[in-house]
Design a protein that fits this description.
This protein has 72 residues and is α+β, with helices and mostly antiparallel strands. The chain has one domain: Alpha-Beta Plaits, CATH 3.30.70. 31% of the residues lie in helices and 39% in strands. It has 2 helices and 4 strands. It has a 4-stranded antiparallel β-sheet, covered by helices on one side. Strand 2 and strand 3 form a beta hairpin. Helix 1 packs across helix 2. The longest helix has 12 residues. It is globular and about 30 Å long. It starts with a strand and ends with a strand. The structure holds copper (II) ion. The site of copper (II) ion has 4 residues, from helix 1.
Length: 72
């Protein structure tokens, strides 16, 4: 399962690692890919992880989640 997010506020590699690190704390997260240019965060999951938790994790780092789309 993949979740594709649009995230505002990421501006450099530090932001990318902060987002990745926050998400890697969830055992369901298998992989995280971030594109700064496109303001995208693609998360590969082994099991369902709620949008709420994903959103909280990223927003705790100081970034804004504007969209979450699910792909199976
Ligand atoms: Cu940054």
């Amino acid at each position: 399962m993949k979740k594709k997010l649009i995230v505002k506020g990421m501006s450099c590699m530090h932001c990318v690692s902060a987002v990745k690190e926050g998400l890697s704390g969830f055992e369901q997260v298998e992989d995280v890919e971030v594109s700064l240019e496109d303001e995208r965060v693609d998360i590969t999951l082994t099991e369902e992880l709620s949008d709420e938790k994903i959103k909280d994790s990223i927003e705790d780092q100081g970034y804004e989640v504007v969209e979450i789309k699910e792909e199976r």
